């Protein structure tokens, strides 16, 4: 998840974010809020500059408050700290998933980073279609698209670009975490590739936490905290800030379709 980390602090939300949800959450908020050579994109891949529309601070959610932005820390070897701010859209369209109203989304990867747009799209599709994900609420469905209109976009980018885009909405991601602003889920490259200490041995799981936490913000869910010692950490908990007695968990629902949540926090 600033929306944003997760787990161990940085994990926490995976990017950064994590949230609670009840029947009143059913309505989506208008506010939308964490190597090898880069794979070549296919000819159909679309390049889209980052939109520059005004960014009202009220339409952003993240795992960190809107405070003066800190300078990004140096990126680990092999991962660029900043990029051009332009993106490649993963080509193709996925099947629809979930029984509720279908939300169309794009997956975009910043130019020049070691992440395959097609590979990232496959992971996001897998996460959003998992029965333990947001489709378990009974009214959310998803479909990835590469063209036409979309309800939101998932963008994987360098820390510098995430800081820049999230900062336009008054959010301080500090080079470390993810955020959700307007109709955009911003995923910090370091969190996507390295997770956080708690999830360091299972980066794939942490990626699920990032997407579930930040998409949860887009759906209107806010942050919650640990419901009790040794209980599963809610996906909307800012796990990157500490587990507080909870055990790692990256899904908003359990295998029986029960919501995993905790007390709400500001």
Molecular structure report:
The structure is a single chain. With 266 residues, this protein is α/β, with parallel strands linked by helices. It has a domain at 19-28 and 44-50 and 57-67 and 86-241: Collagenase (Catalytic Domain), CATH 3.40.390. Helices cover 17% and strands 17% of the residues. It has helices spanning 117-129, 159-167, 189-194, 203-218, and strands at 19-20, 46-49, 60-62, 86-89, 101-110, 140-144, 152-157, 179-181, 184-188, 222-223. The strands form 2 sheets. Strands 2, 3, 4, 5, 6, 7, 8 and 9 form an 8-stranded mixed beta sheet that branches. It has a two-stranded antiparallel sheet with strand order 1-10. Helix 1 crosses helix 4. The longest helix has 16 residues, at 203-218. 53% of the residues are buried.
Radius of gyration: 16 Å
In CATH, the topology of the domain at 19-28 and 44-50 and 57-67 and 86-241 is named Collagenase (Catalytic Domain)
Question: Class of the domain at 19-28 and 44-50 and 57-67 and 86-241 in CATH?
Answer: Alpha Beta
Low-confidence stretches: 1-59, 63-73
Q: What's the architecture of the domain at 19-28 and 44-50 and 57-67 and 86-241 in CATH terms?
A: 3-Layer(aba) Sandwich
Q: Beta-strand percentage? A: 15-25%
How confident overall, as mean pLDDT?
80
Main sheet: strands, sense, barrel: 8 strands, mixed
What level of helicity do the residues show? 10-25%
H/E element order: EEEEEHEEHEEHHE
The geometry reads as globular
Total number of helical segments?
A: 4
Gap between N and C termini, in Å? Answer: 16 Å
Structural class: alpha/beta
Number of strands: 10
